[in-house]
Records
---
Amino acid sequence: MDTERWAAVVGRDKTFDGAFVYCVKSTNIYCRPTCAARLARRANVHFCDTAQEAEVAGFRPCKRCKPE
């Protein structure tokens, strides 16, 4: 599952937009899979099913892709 999600992030696959968010541990930010921001290192990425789940985990929404 995470491999498929990571492939969606790397490819900025629009079909996954809204299906999950990815969280960057080094910045405490979460993004849409289609975010145009610089790609994070895979080791720093954690996946959440919803924006609410990411916020409960302590991440804030990206100001560029506005996933909230």
---
Amino acid sequence: MTSSSEGEILQANQVIRERWKIKLKIGGGGFGEIYEAIDLQNHGERVAMKVESSKATKQVLKMEVAVLRRLQGKRHACKFYGCGRNDKFNYLVMSLQGKNLADLRRESPKQSFSLSTAIRIGLQILNAIQEIHSIGFLHRDIKPSNFAMGRTNATCKMVFMLDFGLARQYLNAKGEIRSPRSAAGFRGTVRYAAVSAHKNKEMGRQDDLWSLFYMLVEFLQGSLPWRKIKDKDEVGRVKEEMNLNVLLDGCPRELHDFALYLKTLSYPDEPSYGLLENNLRNIIVRHGISTDEPYDWEINYENLGPKVRLNGAVPTRNRSHTTALKDRLVEDKNKGLDTQAPITMGEEDDEHDHTGHHIKFSEKEAHDKPKYKRQEFMRPKYGAVNFDVIDAVNARLAAAAASTSGTADIFSKLRIETSLDNEEKKAGDVEVTFRIPLRTSKTIESHEKSNRQAKRHKTAPPNAIEKSSKSNRSLTVIITFIFKIFEK
């Protein structure tokens, strides 16, 4: 996000047509510039204004306006507010959305999405592609940065298609497929373009779907094999010769079928969107994914403190459990309750010294060290990392894990980004991993039985949990905190 400055088409606080007040520039490229603006005639609603110079050699806003107008009423289309032109620039005003998928993927800990997030997002993108095809247009630049999540509470789980500057009408006025050109020229983005685009062939509906396929692979793998290849033709050759088994290593087998089906299609063919949708839904069913799980970026704890943000977590399989955990944390903090519980460390767990190296306890030290220990992780060069919030999170995770019957995947990786004293220059990362032992149903049953026996004989119950944990050490929740450390 950048602020307006000299040399840009519009300036901050400039008012267009007595309605749109420019706030700041939020993007730009070869097509022109994008600004966040305020609708003065609609209660100050925040909108996006796309602008191109009237002197630009290649103008694309006319196509954008035509496509967006026809898409109105479609689920994955931005709302069209208006358009206009003067002697200096052309503009298009539409609803303002949240972060695009490219940024969200790059911000994730491994630059990839969980299977749950990738496939559910993929389904929405598939539907968005079907919507633009249904009005007779191809997008021809399907890529993560051209899809954004909604900004409001009502739309934050929805994906919106952006940027129709390279769109092309594939139907004529009679609703017939236009004859393909012998040489069409390359259109799209090299990383995600279909092989036919690399060969300068006329692109069809299947080519938008090939781009979706490459997006799904990148979402799951974190990158594509040709990411660092600069030559467009070489990328095309790699894509054409790539063995699907190699490309899809570790991916659901349904993606292999997805690609094989696309290979059967040619320019005039209408894809079976339903077949492809069922293909992706089979992944959801086979892996037990819930359609209302939070997306990877939705699990955050921004309310816990001004300097701490949790995001990028792989979603849990129990959304209500996660939500309740978060609510209890916030509620306890607001009430001023002590949420700084110690971190539970198993006897076999490693700890860290102040340099970041692992300390392996000897058998005697492991036996003598306290059962509960709070980590004070220090880096002398950058100062201390405050663990107050981490302790609060850990206390609730431990409580949740203790009440769960052997479900080892309740919680996955959590990520905390913290800036110290509002310093903005990145200095490095610190990673700390904790393991929380789980109570299995067998352990809980044994513990309850011991309590009943103790009450009957009026004796103190043995610590069944502690005893049984020695034989159930493999059942743990592993939580990794990644700290972004900043220096002046």
